[in-house]
Amino acid sequence: MPPAQGAGVGFLAVDSGGSGLRVVVGEVGRPVSVPLASGESVRTGPRGIDAGHFMEQLVPMVRALADEAGCAEWGTAVIGATGLATLGDGLREELPGALAREFGVRTVALVADAVSAYVGALGIRPGAVVAAGTGLIAIGTDLTGWRRADGWGHLLGDCGGGAWIGRAGLEAALRAYDGRDGGSGPLLACAEEQFGPLPGLPGKLYPRPDRPAVLASFAPRVAQCAPDDPVAAGILRAAARHMAESAAAVCPTTGEPRVALTGGLFRMGDPLLVPVREELAKRLPHAQLVAAAGDPLDGAVRIARDLAAGVLTLPADGVMVHVVGVAGRGDHF
Amino acid sequence: MPPAQGAGVGFLAVDSGGSGLRVVVGEVGRPVSVPLASGESVRTGPRGIDAGHFMEQLVPMVRALADEAGCAEWGTAVIGATGLATLGDGLREELPGALAREFGVRTVALVADAVSAYVGALGIRPGAVVAAGTGLIAIGTDLTGWRRADGWGHLLGDCGGGAWIGRAGLEAALRAYDGRDGGSGPLLACAEEQFGPLPGLPGKLYPRPDRPAVLASFAPRVAQCAPDDPVAAGILRAAARHMAESAAAVCPTTGEPRVALTGGLFRMGDPLLVPVREELAKRLPHAQLVAAAGDPLDGAVRIARDLAAGVLTLPADGVMVHVVGVAGRGDHF
Questions:
Q1: Where are the alpha helices (DSSP H) in chain B?
Q2: Contact residues on chain A for B240, CB-CB shorter than 8 A
Q3: Residue B331 banded pLDDT, cuts 50, 70, 90
Q4: Residues spanned by CATH 3.30.420.40 within chain A?
């Protein structure tokens, strides 16, 4: 079957993260489809993110969207994926071929989730984005290359992220419990409300596989206490300082870069946002803080549109942005 | 067989920790035996520390020591054990009976390893002891009760311990790698020497079950860099401040308490000891810093001697110090 008319500029855009795949399809010059979500995160195996499991989730979602769109050929696919840098070997090797066989895709871009978050927030402009949820990473570009800072995980960094804030809050609760300096009575009360008597807390945290998420679950309590508790406010101030340090490490030092914040952590609102704005203004006076325009899936869509239209100006470095051409069904090699 | 003469005042003393059991036997008024070590840590199961596995290790060691000592009846046993407060249910229920059946023991004291460390370091005197290895706990007494501070593990506290120092050192290395504030070039060089290229570090740390030990393995590098690197020196200064905070939370506020440091972390020497001495002098000017007289096994021996001689003045609270009388073979109930 020959490719349907216009299929050369049709595209798939995918965001693959901890809560599963989200997918849209579209064509250049037209609005994208509604997004579909799998709700199940892609398994990782010995070769990292499991390309087979990825395709198992993707294929039925794309078929459903294709029926809606009246189109079954997609020339371009952009996948923004968590863990791509460290766990992406399987995806990089297997996904382009699988997408070509299944959908006739001829150009595939695998981008780190930090890159799709960046483009979703700022578009294709120089600047820096701080992406914060349970973890924290900063990414920046001058449009000739990418820089990243932090994102090392809860034991080595992710300074200022959700697990970092929650951990600091629990430490302050336990300091109050012990009668050590630096304790917070309000955080102690919150910790007992959330976790029960504190001597039981280690037993509720250490055996769990999702320790960073358990720590991050306490972060909203820190924000809740901050207006009246100087210890909680100090934790958020320190988090804000760490975010500004990471943003400063990746932001272009010349020109008029933009800076944006993205990710679930910023739903905390003013107790975190006010100090973050102040620390960014101190640390990056030449940068303009703007609201994030969209999320990582919006970023994948933008990259896909530009790639499909042949106008992508995003720096590709093989790791953060990995673009490959493949022999699709429509090509007669 | 009736008890051998003098067996009523014979004792066993045991230190049970991460590297296994260490055991000595003795009699009041005489030097103790050489210590024997099992080299294998006692398993934990659904009921905490496994009393059966504990006895499996203990029995042959005590028999070997008894042959040397020419004595097979022990009226008193003192067990200092890591994790007793949280994982000691099985030991508390099964060990006294097992020791009575096997050795004719009539009085058993189960003491937290922090208590045996305290008594080993300071004897039975009011004061505070900071015990630091991979983790960190402070314990203090006015001889009417016990206070403890920290010891919450590497995600919730253990502030200033080996994992804490190593983690802070690796964070400083990664800050330098990223170009963030607070980085240390010398620590970056040490981290690359120890762990290879740093993008691989998360993969070498997070999948391991012994993450705190991996973090603590970097602590000696921080001490090594401290004389010439202000970032490394700052980490050890902060560790010293945390130790003084924990000591202050447990030390009697009146009288002339003594303070001692014990545990493997202090083998770091001056780069850590100099700031610790300064911070303790600031925080606890009424206390006298003394050298630890002995280790946790020495503490278990001291408690056993006093208990066997009927002169133990250590506060018993059922948790930190749990003393029980049992019906041994020598009693005809």
A1: 51-69, 84-87, 89-103, 113-122, 162-178, 185-195, 201-205, 211-216, 219-225, 230-250, 270-283, 296-308
A2: none
A3: very low
A4: 7-117+295-325, 127-289
A7-117+295-325 to CATH, choices 3.40.50.2000, 1.25.40.80, 3.30.420.40, 2.30.30.100: 3.30.420.40
Beta bridge partners of A20: A17
- Asked whether the beta carbons of B195 and B201 are under 8 A apart, the reply is yes
Question: Which among B153, B182, B249 has the least Cβ separation from residue A206?
Answer: B153
Which positions in chain B have a beta carbon within 8 angstroms of at least one beta carbon in chain A? Answer: 85-86, 147-150, 152-157, 159, 167, 170-171, 174-175, 178-182, 199, 201-203, 205-206, 211, 215, 245-246, 248-249
A181 chain-B contacts, CB cut-off 8 A:
245, 248-249
- The amino acid sitting at A312 is L
Interface predicted TM-score of the whole assembly (ipTM), two decimals: 0.89
Antiparallel, parallel or unpaired: β A136-141 and A146-150 = antiparallel
At B12-36, the pLDDT tens digits run: 999 998 778 999 999 888 888 889 8
**Which fold, B127-289?**
Nucleotidyltransferase; domain 5 (3.30.420)
**What are the residues whose beta carbons fall under 8 Å from the beta carbon of B308, sequence distance 6 or more?**
B8, B9, B10, B11, B27, B28, B75, B76, B107
Give the C-alpha separation, B122 to B262, whole Å: 10
Residues A147-184 as b or e (16 or more Cβ within 10 Å = b):
bbbbbbbbbbbbbbbbbbbbbbbbbbbbbbbbebebbb
Q: Which of B174, B181, B203 sits opposite A157 (nearest CB)?
A: B174
The DSSP symbol for A330 reads: T
Q: Which stretches of chain A drop beneath a pLDDT of 50?
A: 1-7, 328-333
CA B113/CA B118 separation, integer angstroms: 8
